[in-house]
Specification:
Strand content: over 45%
Number of helices: 0
Oligomer: single chain
């Protein structure tokens, strides 16, 4: 599509400049978004006597306020560029997997209808697995019909809570009567949408809503035009988030770290303490903090043949998600193999075992 902007007029612009001569002189000056290679260095003229500029055009007469929502999850910043579909099918599924930046409630989804009376089925999944939009927990299913072609924002019949740091998916089935390419996509087109971006693990399509093909790859270079919106009245208090939930460390002595974040709003003061494993695990820095910070832990070497787990608890007052327990799992001691020699010539008993393994030898000697 293109965007044109009326930037001025010229009452003396000759009517003879037009292929179809109008009754008199005068024209509007219009700038096109196709660049300076188009028309007169990017501009063109429309006679005062033209009765219409385009036989198929759309205008928004009920656009929503820009402050209706607190956040937009989207990958298609440039919008609808092309379409995907399956041969002979008017219906297909598209999906985007997003990572929630804050704990919030989804209240709307948007996409494009490529034909009149496009029907849709929306599904929102929370706690999904990377690469599989229909994994996790199905939070809502909603269906309807879009009577007009173009962009539509669809309010969810019930809010869906997404948790900071977790993956969620916005899945939509579109059925476009008389048209076999129902899924709107953004992709880079030289000289038009060349700045379109895509990243692995973002967008997927499917013919049945269960078996998915990723399209946000270096081969396809696409993103599905599906957005998700969070409510303006979402988080009004701090939200505690600690990452990662567990650290696997070797049996040797060392240090490791955890990141503490306030993914909500306001100020959050927090504290951290070891609640199990204090004989070998301790906090060297980050026992307290405000909003975002780092906890650094020290652990001594593990000489046991068994692994062990210590727990650190992060607590804050008045914040969602508190307390959070994270763990350090330390591997068992592997030890080096040792060769133990028992006896004297001419009879020698030789056994190779791990250094920490108990070895019981029974030796029968005669006078």
């Amino acid at each position: 599509h293109n965007l044109s902007l009326f930037v001025g007029w010229d009452d003396s612009f000759s009517k003879s400049n037009f292929i179809k001569t109008p009754p008199g002189d005068g024209a509007f000056i219009i700038r096109n978004n196709w660049g300076t290679s188009f028309g007169d260095a990017g501009y063109f003229y429309m006679s005062y006597y033209d009765t219409y500029a385009e036989y198929r055009c759309w205008a928004f007469h009920n656009a929503e306020s820009t402050d209706n929502y607190s956040k937009i999850y989207t990958y298609d910043s440039l919008g609808w560029i092309s379409n995907l579909g399956y041969s002979g099918l008017e219906s297909a599924w598209g999906a985007n997997i997003f990572q929630a930046s804050t704990t919030a409630t989804l209240s709307a989804v948007s996409s494009y209808a490529a034909s009149i009376n496009t029907s849709y089925v929306i599904k929102i999944y929370t706690g999904v697995t990377a690469g599989n939009p229909s994994s996790g927990t199905l939070a809502i299913t909603q269906s309807g019909t879009l009577s007009e072609i173009g962009y539509h924002t669809i309010k969810l019949s019930q809010p869906v809570t997404v948790t900071a740091g977790q993956l969620f998916s916005t899945v939509i089935q579109l059925t476009t009567p008389g048209y076999n390419y129902p899924i709107p996509v953004e992709l880079p087109v030289s000289g038009y949408s060349s700045k379109a971006e895509y990243h692995s693990g973002e967008s997927y399509v499917s013919s049945n809503g269960t078996g998915w093909t990723e399209i946000s790859t270096a081969t396809d270079e696409m993103n599905a035009c599906i957005k998700a919106f969070t409510s303006q009245s979402d988080v009004t208090q701090p939200v505690l988030y600690v990452n990662p939930s567990n650290r696997n460390v070797s049996s040797d002595a060392g240090t490791t770290t955890y990141t503490v974040s306030n993914t909500g709003s306001g100020t959050m003061s927090w504290s951290a303490q070891v609640i199990s494993g204090s004989s070998w695990l301790s906090i060297t820095s980050g026992t307290t903090g405000t909003n975002n910070g780092t906890i650094t832990c020290k652990y001594i070497g593990n000489t046991s043949l068994s692994s062990r787990t210590g727990t650190i608890r992060v607590t804050t007052s008045g914040a969602t998600g508190s307390p959070i327990d994270v763990t350090v799992t330390q591997a068992a001691s592997g030890g080096d193999n040792e060769t133990i020699i028992v006896g004297q010539e001419p009879g020698i008993v030789e056994e190779t075992v791990p250094a920490q393994q108990n070895l019981v030898l029974m030796i029968n000697s005669t006078p």
